[in-house]
């Protein structure tokens, strides 16, 4: 299949825009359909576009999962279309993939790889590594992110309707199991280092106030779980500090 | 405990169900009622993948679910019963008379459906079917996640 490689490359590039047309009606559907289109072109037979057009339209139906793993459904659905799977089967495959790809992506990336690498970068800055730590974060995070996108697209394209076997790969399962604890370790390391680094310029009295506020914030976050988040609490403190600071002058 | 939620959601098992409802309810089992998924090992495999190992997943046809309901209602754990469309829960409700409340969690766009809420798209026939179920005394609300406001059926059909 000589057409495979350039089409897969094109599909991968289009997958970077998968959330660009996000909306409540189809969520990532349009983006997934656009990314799938290059893989579906061989369905045009002797100028007859019927199968191709129907497959592209199916590809753009409602879909939502983790953006980095959308390639899996793009590849798998395209493969199923090439194998002339029944349209209902392709629809069912897409429906069945929303859940597992969403939860796997959340565990691997949003609560794993992203906070883990961010925390290591913060620890690096706190330890005096400066800009190179930030640069290393950008390179390492994106290497992992692009590798995951590429793996997902290729695995989907290789397995088609049997894509479940790709998700059972031991390496992936181990990564999903370890990403949470690794993230916790990295964040646990970074927090005290960052606190020491940020509090260093302040006099002792101010540091005591900062420690008190941090303790209050933690207690509030645990106590008012679901109603308050760290970002809001932080912004509130910033506003309060600005107002008090202005009044003090 | 019992079945805490009878939910219509065309994505069946996904994050809103497992995390959104699963954590506050301390979920012990999920019953997925769908005749096609019941007979499809690869789909079952995919759906099971989105669920942590301590939550049991039961795949049932409509007929099996009607028979199993009394047992699940008496279960000591908390459960969620999921169906992908209104017709499935309507059939189950007609067979068992055990369903008192229905949660519309997500019915997404398809040709012929119109937006009623951001996560609820219905054809006129589907909206009528929901109103008819409500007229039979079943309390129907739309609510995607526990922190959202439950929207009564009259407001979105």
Brief descriptors of the model:
heterodimer, A: about 250 residues, mainly alpha, 10 helices, elongated, B: about 160 residues, alpha/beta, Fructose Permease, two-stranded antiparallel ribbon, 9 strands, about 40% helix, about 30% strand, globular
What would you note in describing this structure?
The complex is a heterodimer of chains A (249) and B (157). Chain A is mainly α. Chain A has ten helices and no strands. Chain A folds into two domains: 198 residues, no CATH class; 47 residues, no CATH class. The N and C termini of chain A lie far apart (73 Å). The model of chain A has no long low-confidence stretch (mean pLDDT 93). With 157 residues, chain B is α/β, with parallel strands linked by helices. Chain B has a single domain, classed as 3-Layer(aba) Sandwich (Fructose Permease), CATH 3.40.35. Chain B contains seven helices and nine strands; from the N terminus they run E-H-E-H-H-E-H-E-H-E-E-E-H-E-E-H. The chains are: A mainly alpha (249), B alpha/beta (157).
What is CATH's topology name of chain B? Fructose Permease
Uncertain residue segments of chain B: none
Largest interchain contact: A-B, 24 and 28 residues
Q: How far apart are the first and last residues' alpha carbons of chain A, in Å?
A: 73 Å
Quick recap of the structure?
By secondary structure, chain A is mainly α. Chain A has ten helices and no strands.
Protein topology:
The complex is a heterodimer of chains A (249) and B (157).
Chain A: H1 4-15, H2 29-40, H3 50-59, H4 70-82, H5 87-126, H6 131-159, H7 163-167, H8 170-199, H9 204-223, H10 230-248
Helix pairs in contact in A: 1-2, 1-6, 2-3, 2-4, 4-5, 4-6, 5-6, 5-8
Chain B: E1 3-9, H1 15-25, E2 27-33, H2 35-38, H3 41-49, E3 56-60, H4 62-73, E4 78-83, H5 86-96, E5 101-106, E6 114-117, E7 120-122, H6 124-135, E8 139-142, E9 151-152, H7 153-156
Parallel strand pairs in B: 1-4, 1-5, 2-3, 2-4, 5-8
Antiparallel strand pairs in B: 6-7, 8-9
Helix pairs in contact in B: 4-5
């Amino acid at each position: 299949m000589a057409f495979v490689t350039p089409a897969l490359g094109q599909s991968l590039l289009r997958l970077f825009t998968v959330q660009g047309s996000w909306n409540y009606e189809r969520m990532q559907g349009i983006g997934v359909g656009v990314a799938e289109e290059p893989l579906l072109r061989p369905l045009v037979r002797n100028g007859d576009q019927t199968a191709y057009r129907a497959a592209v339209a199916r590809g753009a139906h409602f879909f939502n999962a983790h953006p980095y793993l959308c390639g899996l459904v793009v590849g798998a659905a395209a493969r199923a279309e090439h194998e002339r799977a029944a349209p209902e089967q392709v629809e069912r495959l897409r429906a069945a993939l929303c859940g597992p790809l969403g939860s796997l992506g959340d565990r691997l990336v949003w609560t794993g790889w992203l906070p883990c690498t961010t925390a290591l970068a913060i620890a690096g800055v706190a330890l005096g590594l400066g800009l190179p730590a930030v640069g290393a974060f950008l390179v390492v995070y994106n290497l992992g992110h692009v590798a995951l996108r590429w793996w997902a697209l290729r695995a989907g394209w290789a397995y088609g309707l049997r894509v479940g076997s790709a998700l059972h790969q031991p390496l992936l399962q181990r990564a999903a199991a370890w990403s949470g604890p690794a993230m916790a370790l990295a964040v646990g390391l970074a927090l005290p280092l960052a606190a020491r680094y940020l509090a260093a310029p302040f006099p002792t009295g101010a540091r005591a106030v900062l420690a008190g506020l941090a303790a209050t914030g933690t207690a509030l976050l645990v106590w008012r779980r679901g109603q308050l988040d760290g970002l809001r609490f932080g912004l509130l403190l910033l506003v309060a500090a600005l107002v008090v600071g202005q009044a003090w002058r | 405990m019992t079945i805490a939620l009878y939910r219509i959601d065309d994505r069946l098992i996904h994050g809103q169900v497992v995390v959104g409802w699963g954590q506050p309810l301390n979920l012990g089992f999920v019953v997925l009622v769908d005749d096609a998924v019941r007979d499809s090992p690869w789909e079952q495999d995919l759906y099971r993948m989105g669920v942590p190992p301590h939550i049991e997943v039961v795949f049932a046809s409509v007929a099996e679910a009607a028979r199993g309901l009394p047992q699940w209602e008496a279960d000591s754990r908390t459960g969620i019963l999921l169906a992908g469309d209104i017709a499935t829960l309507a059939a189950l409700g007609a067979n068992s008379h055990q369903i008192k409340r229905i949660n519309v969690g997500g019915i997404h766009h398809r040709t012929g459906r119109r937006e009623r809420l951001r996560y609820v798209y219905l054809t006129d026939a589907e909206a009528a079917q929901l109103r008819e179920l409500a007229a039979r005394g079943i309390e129907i609300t739309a609510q995607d996640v526990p922190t959202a406001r439950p929207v009564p059926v009259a407001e979105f059909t």
